[in-house]
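Morning run. Coffee first, then this:
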Amino acid sequence: MTQVRGTPPEEIVLFGHSLGGAVTAWLAALTSPAGVIIESSFDRMQSLAEVHYPLLSRLIPLRVAFPAVDEIATVQSPLLALHSPDDEIVPMSLGRRLYEAAPGPKRFVQLQGGHNDGFLRSQPQYQDAIAAFLDQIAAPDGHAGAAPAQPTDTDAD
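And here it is:
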């Protein structure tokens, strides 16, 4: 978008789900976007491998590290992280590690449902959280109109 359409990075909001969250963290570290939304992602690929393949993950080195936690630690853009404790593919603890590494401003929203249906099972909270985040970063001062936290939200910074 920046090269083809000439859109400045500070007018772009990046969104990544699962593996896409690691790619989003990497791109955000390179471009300083207006905002970053990461859903159901992990801190690094090795952590995810250890969850699903405990023995193999120690015997066979990964070719790609996807160190999202290192990338997100350098991102100054606002972050919205969404994850469910019911996620059967990426444990929420890995998403929390990624969230905790971000310097802020940031917000974590706990979803309901599995890895691929949390956004559906968490309506309208999911949609409301994204809308409030977009409204906030679109405001001239970056602090306008954030929706009040739901009981399952954890706000930080």
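The longest strand covers residues 13-17. Good start to the day.
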